Amino acid sequence: MLDIGFLELMLIGVVGLLVLGPERLPRAARTAGMWIGKIKRTVSGMQREISAQLEAEELRQKLNEQQKKLDDSLKKAKLDVESIADSPSEKASATPNDTEQRVAKASSRLDDALKTVREETPPSSPAPSSTAPLREAEAESAESEETALKKDRNHQ
């Protein structure tokens, strides 16, 4: 902090003894020590708070990136499922086997997207808010696949 040597401290002590006297010098030294301690605690508290804020901001950014990736993957899967659901009405000659293959392909794409998101999420500190969108996404995709299969069965 300050580059004060032993001689400088002795000089400050002698001047303080001459100015304050032997009765008030210990009390003044105690007060100065308390103020220095308070300043050090305040500075270290601020440093901890700043580092916590920076870490929280970094986590928010990672969470937003993961959410964007998940949203993009879900949009792609939704488009695949919608195309599967819409195409039997457009193509009357589509076979059930072809439709099943396309459903399997869309399902595998969704599984791959969810697997990618899970692999990129650090397992040591899973945020409770990051698992909720994954569960909702899985439920949504399962519902959309079931809807597509029902539509398929109705068209046949």
UniProtKB/TrEMBL annotation:
Coiled coil regions, renumbered to chain: 49-80
Any Pfam family the entry gives: TatA_B_E
UniProt-listed InterPro entries: TatA/B/E, TatB
Recorded GO MF terms: protein transmembrane transporter activity
Cellular location(s): Cell membrane; Membrane
Record region (Disordered): 81-156
Membrane spanning residue stretches: 6-25
UniProt membrane topology term: Single-pass membrane protein
Entry keyword set: Cell membrane, Coiled coil, Membrane, Protein transport, Translocation, Transmembrane, Transmembrane helix, Transport
Domain of life: Bacteria
Subunit record text: The Tat system comprises two distinct complexes: a TatABC complex, containing multiple copies of TatA, TatB and TatC subunits, and a separate TatA complex, containing only TatA subunits. Substrates initially bind to the TatABC complex, which probably triggers association of the separate TatA complex to form the active translocon.
NCBIfam families linked: tatB
Task performed by this protein: Part of the twin-arginine translocation (Tat) system that transports large folded proteins containing a characteristic twin-arginine motif in their signal peptide across membranes. Together with TatC, TatB is part of a receptor directly interacting with Tat signal peptides. TatB may form an oligomeric binding site that transiently accommodates folded Tat precursor proteins before their translocation.
HAMAP family xrefs: TatB
Name used for this protein in its record: Sec-independent protein translocase protein TatB
Organism: Vreelandella sulfidaeris
Lineage: Bacteria, Pseudomonadati, Pseudomonadota, Gammaproteobacteria, Oceanospirillales
